[in-house]
Amino acid sequence: MSNEARRDALLKAANNRKRRAAFKRELAEGKRNWREALDSKEEAILRMRVKELLEALPGFGSIRAAAILDRVGISQTRRVQGLGSTQRQKLEIELKGR
User: Fold this and answer.
1) Checking phi first, is residue 53 left (phi over 0); if not, alpha (psi -120 to 50) or beta?
2) How far apart are CA 50 and CA 34, in angstroms?
3) What whole-number distance in Å separates Cα of residue 21 and Cα of residue 1?
């Protein structure tokens, strides 16, 4: 990989991390809804882990997020873009009203 390509990749990764952090902050503040992450077309959001998404929700911590993932049958390391249709449906049922 050339130095220029490496620099571009590092810059892109940093921008994606900033975008995910901003999205999670907006979730915590109630400005965004968790459904927006599932419906997003933005690469930075789609590459967020589902566990991080849940932990960003008000009233959710690592224990509650892990319990929901276990009940729904989603791996702790699954990313938003990797959710299957059945997993999405179960997650939506679990988070209904939030």
Assistant:
1) alpha
2) 10
3) 28
Whether domain 3-94 has CATH 1.10.8.50: the reply is: yes
pLDDT digits (tens, 9 = 90+) for 35-70: 999 999 999 999 999 999 999 999 999 999 999 999
DSSP 29: T
Tokens standing for 92?
């939506």
- Distance (Å, whole) CA 70 – CA 18: 28
The amino acid at residue 24 is K
| Residue owning tokens 């927006």 | 36
Q: Any idea how long the chain is?
A: 98
pLDDT of res. 66: 96
- Dist CA 65 CA 54 (whole Å): 6
CA distances to 40, 53, 68 from 72, in Å: 21, 15, 6
Dump pLDDT digits (tens) for 15-32: 999 999 999 999 999 899
